[in-house]
Design brief:
Elements lengths: L1 H9 L2 E9 L2 E2 L1 H17 L7 E8 L4 H14 L12 E3 L10 H27 L16
Parallel strand pairs: 1-3, 3-4
Antiparallel strand pairs: 1-2
Length: 144
């Protein structure tokens, strides 16, 4: 955990990726995200305003719920999310099979280009445009 948290701390951009296991994030990745984002995203805002994107590999179905689940971590950490020309899901079962999904390959290429461009915008924009201050988190649990 600590090694990967350090890697995320040093990165300007982060890609979260998972295969689909039972229409959801793979268990190992989910455990990692639950712990890592509690430390980095919630507590000290370490990932705030870093660029972050999610990508999913799936054999047949369950790609979109998994994509949404990964995106939830990125949104919660106040990261900046680039988009592609479709949802970032690519199809394949065995290693390398995704290369046959030519639409999926294009989605990933467009995402990569948009992500690289957004990271440059953030890097150069920071000098001229001040970022909004981080607000202390308000919790409201619907209990009265
Ligand atoms: C435990 C498990 C659950 C899976 N569930 C799904 C599923 O819900 N939908 C699907 O299309 N493929 C499912 N698959 C197939 C994987 O999404 C697909 O083979 C994946 O791209 C392979 O990645 P992996 O070998 O790293 O797990 C599942 C595979 C495993 C091992």
């Amino acid at each position: 955990m600590n090694e990967w948290i350090q890697k995320m701390k040093n990165a300007d951009g982060i890609i979260l990726a998972s295969p689909v296991h039972y229409s959801a994030i793979a268990g190992t990745m989910k455990s990692f995200l639950d712990r890592a984002f509690f430390v980095t995203g919630v507590n000290d805002g370490m990932l705030r305003h870093k660029v972050g994107a999610s990508v999913v590999a799936v054999r047949r179905s369950g790609g979109l719920p998994t994509f949404e689940q990964l995106n939830n971590f990125i949104n919660y950490a106040e990261m900046l999310m680039p988009a592609s020309n479709y949802w970032n899901v690519i199809h394949g079962r065995t290693p390398g099979e995704v290369n046959q999904d030519i639409e999926g390959v294009q989605i990933m290429r467009v995402l990569g280009r948009n992500m690289a461009w957004l990271m440059k915008l953030v890097q150069y924009g920071k000098e001229g445009v001040r970022a909004p201050e981080r607000e202390p988190k308000t919790f409201f649990s619907f209990i009265h």
